[in-house]
Amino acid sequence: MDKRIWKYELETIDAQILYLPANAKFLKILVLIGIPSLYALIDLEEEDEKVLIRTFGTGQQIHNTEKLEYIDTYSNGDFVWHVFKKEK
């Protein structure tokens, strides 16, 4: 096992794809110099998998919540965003 904590920059958009090692454990999202960054505990020996990330603003309608795994919430300026991983 070669475990490390890595940072992945996010865009504040509805949906985006990240490639992370399988079984990554999401830890926290922080905004650094205006850029939201997702921190995850990963095992570099795992194969990368495609992960669909969804971001919703407070008050925005969300469909199919049973297929979403909550990661974290962050604020950027006057807005608050809620980030989820779309389950397969």
Structural class: mainly beta
Radius of gyration: 13 Å
Number of strands: 7
Helix content: under 10%
Secondary-structure map:
Layout: E1 3-9, E2 15-21, E3 25-32, E4 35-43, E5 48-57, E6 68-76, E7 79-86
Antiparallel strand pairs: 1-4, 2-5, 3-4, 5-7, 6-7
Protein architecture, described:
A four-stranded antiparallel β-sheet has the order 2-5-7-6, with no helix packed on it. Strands 1-4-3 form a three-stranded antiparallel β-sheet, with no helix packed on it. It contains no helices and seven strands. With 88 residues, the protein is mainly β. Helices cover 0% and strands 66% of the residues. The chain has strands at 3-9, 15-21, 25-32, 35-43, 48-57, 68-76, 79-86. The chain has one domain (3-86).
Properties at a glance:
single chain, 88 residues, mainly beta, 4-stranded antiparallel β-sheet, 3-stranded antiparallel β-sheet, 7 strands
Q: TL;DR?
A:
The chain is an all-beta fold and 88 residues long.
